[in-house]
Amino acid sequence: MLHPFIPFFTEKLWLDLKLNISLKTPLMYKDWNLPIKSNIQFKKSYQKIDWLIELVTSIRSTKADLEISPGSFIDISTEDLKKDKNDVIKSNLGVFKRLGRVVNIHDIPLNKQGIKIIVGLDSVTLYFDKDVDLSKQKQNMLNKVKFLENKVFVLNKKLKNKSFLNNAPKLIVQKEKNSLLQHNIELKKLNSILNSIKN
Questions:
Q1: pTM, entire model
Q2: At what angle do helices 40-65 and 83-91 cross, to 10 degrees?
Q3: Considering only CA atoms, which of 127, 123, 112 is closest in space to residue 79?
Q4: Phi, psi (rounded to 5 degrees) for 122
């Protein structure tokens, strides 16, 4: 880390420690892809934090889809979560509440209108303030779903076209596949929200 700032000193230290012999290179030419053994515990921790980030992202994007202020606070219910995912929230409670703008976390469903969101293979229910009219947002969401379904239909048709697959550059084909995947994820999320809004 010091080498960019004091290269003459670090290079001298490298030579004095004979690292140029054991690692077969001067410091200035060192490849920093060090052979570090993967740590299973680190991977597990990374996956937990990654899931928590995905949950916060889903909460924020759901607010955006419902045209609810990002700064508004919510309650959530985790009755559908498995113990390990509940433990992730509990062990990161302060950060989660601050980033997700969450006031209370309940392990049972509340007796009011909520929105169930899907996070990977899990789901949680969000409860907004009383002044949020969810039914008013339903038509806007139905329009978004219709628009996305049309995009998915067009992309599916294009990706089944052998002429397109054989003649288009690989980057373009991959871009269209990625777009299809993202549209399907967004559709799944929007349909989950719509199913949660009672008529």
A1: 0.63
A2: 90
A3: 123
A4: -110, 165
Task: Report CA-CA distances (Å) from 6 to 9, 10, 12, 28.
Answer: 6, 6, 10, 12
**pLDDT tens per residue across span 83-108:** 999 999 999 999 999 999 999 999 99
Helix axes 170-196, 40-65, angle to 10 degrees: 70
State the Cα–Cα distance between residues 10 and 13, nearest whole angstrom: 5
Question: Going edge to edge, which strands form the sheet with 102-106?
Answer: 102-106, 74-77, 122-127, 115-119
Amino acid in the structure at residue 146 = K
Q: What are phi and psi of 43, to 5 degrees?
A: -60, -40
Question: In this structure, are 172 and 150 located in the same domain?
Answer: yes
Instruction: Tell me the CB-side half-sphere exposure of residue 99, using CA atoms within 13 A.
Output: 15
Exposure string over 186-199, b if 16+ CB within 10 A, otherwise e? bbebbebbeebbee
Domain holding 164, by residue range, is: 134-196
Are 84 and 155 part of one and the same domain? no
Alpha carbon of residue 156 to chain centroid = 25
For residue 127, the surrounding DSSP H or E stretch is strand 122-127
In a domain, 50, yes or no: yes
